[in-house]
Structure formats: C-alpha cells, structure tokens
Amino acid sequence: MAGHSKWANIKRQKARVDAVKGKVFAKMSREIIVSARLGGDPAGNFQLRTAIDKAKAAGVPNDNIDRAIAKGSGNLGADDNFEAIRYEGYGPGGIAILIEALTDNRNRTAADLRTAFSKSNGNLGETGCVGWMFEQKGVVTIAHPGDEETLLEVALEGGAETYDLTTLLNNRDEEFPGAELFCAPADLEALDTSLKAQELNIHQAELRWIPSNTVIVDDPDQARLLVKLMDALEDLDDVQSVTANFDMAEELMEAIAA
C-alpha cells in the first residue's frame, strides 16, 4: 500500500502501559458516545459496532462500554457535547501531521495542540495545509489470515482494493501474523461483512488516513523530536488519532526508545 508506514504500524500495535490505561478507556468511551448518537443498537449502527470492537480490543470493561452507549443514546441524560474536528500541522523538518479529535472545547484543544507542536519545533497549521497529502481508506485488519492466495481471493470478493501482510500483538505482547485489507471508505461495512461471512478472524475495522507518500527520517535528532511530538499529541485527552507522513528504520526507533 503506497504510504503505508512502519512507524504507524508499530504505534498501533504498542500496548499502552497501565499508567495511561484510564486515558485510553476515556478516549474509547468518547468515541462510543459520539457513535451512539446515530443509534444505540450496534446491530444497526456499523460505526458504533466498530467503536465497541475497538474498545474491547483495548481491554475496556463492558460496564464502561454500556455506560458510554447509554450516554450517547440519551438514556443517561444529555451526553457531553463532543464534536469531531480534524487538525493539521507540521512536525520538525516539515513532516505533515494529521490529527483527529473529539472535543467539547475547540479553543482548549487548539491551545493544547499548539503547545505540543511548539515544544518539538513544529507548528499547528491552517485547515487544508497538509490534508491533501493524505487519503482516507477503510481498513479491515485480520488475525491469522492463512495463505496469501486464499487471502487475495477473499479480498477481491469482498471489494478490497489492496492488502498488506503485517504482524500483530496480543495482550501478552506476543507477535502473530495479520493482514490489512484496504477499501474505499464507503465500502468498509460491506468488506467487513463479507470477511466475517468467510469466517475470518476480524481484529479491527476502521477508517484511517494514509499518506500518499512518506518521507524517510534518518537524522537521530529529528527522529527524537518527531517521536516526542507524536507521543505528546497522542497523550492529549481530546486527540483520538495522529497520522504522519514519515517513516524511519526500526533500528533508529529502537535506539530512540532505548
């Protein structure tokens, strides 16, 4: 897949440490609340269904999920006034960064983002400044996809445009084989349904922004600033996802982590 980033893949796979688990739960609950506004029955609300699946994969307790559904459905009074906003900016070296947030206070979110960018030699930009460098795709992730020939057949049958073989992590940080199937955003539900009908093990279905081209970062100082910025952005309460158009060697990422 053009623009598929090892960095993005590794960040998605990393299990969150226990110290920030509550923050992850809050973000997942916020996504469920917003999705439940379209209807509280997961069977008839694909967006809610995928939000619930994502929350369960992250270890969010069922009680938290049920409360979020009830809140978004209006069964626990008015839900928080969250709205979805996309922010764009530049990291050190002009790296393009796309941020999706769910916020009840635009001014607070913008101020927090601006601070995070400025601490890592980046800057928050205007709407549209880097968005043209990314394309939104539906992505269905499969665990243990089997042989590649069979995968190709079910991918084509389900309406996928392309696929990538990848490695996933379980809750014990053990690696196992996986595959990501990419489709047009409007085809995500149909692809997910088709793959489930083939009794494949669906790990996650989501909409994802994918850079059309990636920039290789090999300077250690720039790499450290980028990792620091990505971590700072992802740690903000209002931020749901962060996508950037850079990649770097695994050896460099390991050196920075060490």
UniProtKB/TrEMBL annotation:
The protein's name: Probable transcriptional regulatory protein DCF17_09750
HAMAP family: Transcrip_reg_TACO1
Record GO biological process: regulation of DNA-templated transcription
Source species: Shackletoniella antarctica
Residues of the TACO1/YebC-like second and third domain: 82-246
GO CC annotations, alphabetized: cytosol
Family that this chain belongs to: Belongs to the TACO1 family.
GO molecular-function term, one example from the UniProt record: DNA binding
Major location category of this protein: cytoplasm
Record localization: Cytoplasm
Domain TACO1/YebC-like N-terminal, residue spans: 5-75
Keywords, comma-separated and alphabetical: Cytoplasm, DNA-binding, Transcription, Transcription regulation
